[in-house]
Amino acid sequence: MSWQLILSRPEENPGPAVITSLMFGGAAQNQAVPAQEYYVGIFPHSKLGDRAPYGQQTGPATADAVMFSQFQLDGQWIFAMDSGVTQDFTFNEGISLIYEAHGQQELDAMWAALSAVPEAEACGWLKDKFGVSWQIIPDNLGELMSKPGAYEKLMGMKKINIAEF
């Protein structure tokens, strides 16, 4: 895991102490802006924030790529940037973002909007078109998992089907 420390002025713009930051490199190079615009379009209560484009070609980053940007998904701040140096890695399943859906209809809609790699689907996990891994789970998953045989049922699912618990 990598950490990025950012000096801020909390008296001017208070925010959370820990924020997810996505580095778009490798196969996802120069996709930070399209990704956040896509995500903001499908998640409720979301918005774009500040962006700092490179302004000129910087390594593999195009002039329009961002060295820093921020956006909110369902009220949660996320930072994103395009790598300014060539990377031999991109996103993988070691890190995933979790979205708690309110009922099967919302779960189905989020799954349909995000899932882009069918072979990566398992137990509520999916991979989107930018290579980011997600867990789309019902907001009552703890309750569902307390039912007899729940683990075995979950292990047999790709997209979670609440009614099957």
Descriptive report:
The protein is globular, with a radius of gyration of 18 Å. The chain has helices at residues 32-42, 104-114, 141-145, 150-155, and strands at residues 20-24, 47-53, 66-73, 76-82, 96-101, 125-127, 133-138. It folds into two domains: 20-82, Signal recognition particle alu RNA binding heterodimer, srp9/1 (2-Layer Sandwich); 96-164, 2,3-Dihydroxybiphenyl 1,2-Dioxygenase, domain 1, CATH 3.10.180. It is built from four helices and seven strands; from the N terminus they run βαββββαββαα. The model has no long low-confidence stretch (mean pLDDT 93). With 165 residues, it is an alpha/beta fold.
Oligomer: single chain
Bulk shape: globular
The secondary structure category is alpha/beta
Residues in helix, %: 10-25%
The CATH homologous superfamily of the largest domain: 2,3-Dihydroxybiphenyl 1,2-Dioxygenase, domain 1
